[in-house]
Amino acid sequence: MRIVPLLVPVLFLAACAENRLHTYMLIQTPGTPVETKGKKKGEIELSPKPLRLTMIAPEAEDLENLAEDLKLVAQSKYHRLPPLTFLRFDFENRTALHWKLDLASASFSEPGGKIYRAVTAKEYAARFTSVAYEHFRYDAMYASYITRHDNEAPKESFWFEKKAPHEGVVLRRGDAGFQVVPFEFIPAGVEDLTFRYPVDEKNFRELKIRLYTERGS
Predict the structure, then answer these.
(1) Angle, vertex CA 11, rays to CA 15 and CA 5, nearest 5
(2) How far is Cα 194 from Cα 115, in angstroms, rounded to an integer?
(3) C-alpha separations of 207 from 29, 107, 108, 195, 212 in Å
């Protein structure tokens, strides 16, 4: 089978740098569902309908907008994102059965064994103590949100249901939503990685990728 490389732009946000690092994923796993027609730039379809799961790296502006939508405020007017690697997962269940996902259990690993896991609430609080990080509250920014029931949209807020980041998400028939997950920062120079992600409460899949990093303006 011929493998057609797919370049997927992924943004790794370095809060301590003025210029952001732009990293591109070269997918190397044959047979992986990565059709991009009709999708957002950089979006990867990890699981197709009727249990649809997609992944995309949000821009810094997208995370700022999410914080605004959540009406997050901090003591300091100056704020910045923690130096982490962020991924946004969007999901939709079009089956009659419940679909359980624990997206915080996804991880990256290097051939030598180093693993980049999702950062827990305890780790986040211990490491990012500056008031500059308070704007991006862990319990709100990285929770899972159900934003649609069938074709019905919420009336008072942008979500129907919210689950804490560590709880995972349970999607009923017609449910759709998203979750942003903060991973340990993957530095420039790290190229070959395996991305391991859940497709339900028991099963995982793996995606072989190569990273290319360049500094943006």
Answers:
(1) 155
(2) 9
(3) 6, 11, 9, 5, 16
E strands in 67-106: 85-93, 99-101
Which tokens belong to 5? 């490389």
CA distance 26 to 11: 14
**Which letter, b or e, does each residue of 130-169 get, where b requires 16 or more Cβ atoms within 10 Å of its Cβ?**
eebbebbbbebbbbbbbbbbeeeeeeeeebbbbeebbebb
| 99-101 vs 107-109, strand pairing mode | unpaired
Q: Give the pair of three-digit tokens for residue 45.
A: 């379809």
How far, in Å, CA of 68 to CA of 50, rounded? Answer: 31
Backbone region of residue 111 per phi and psi (left: phi > 0; alpha: psi in -120 to 50; beta: other values): alpha
pTM metric for this prediction: 0.84
Say which residue the tokens 């190229």 belong to: 191
Q: What letter would DSSP give residue 20? A: P
65 phi and psi, to 5 degrees? -65, -35
Render pLDDT for 62-105 as a digit per residue (tens, 0 to 9). Answer: 899 999 999 998 777 788 999 998 999 999 999 999 999 999 99
CB 168 within 8 A of CB 144: yes
Strands 175-183 and 144-149: antiparallel
Tracing tokens 């979750």 back to the chain, one arrives at 179
Structure tokens at 107: 């991880």
End-to-end CA distance of the chain: 38
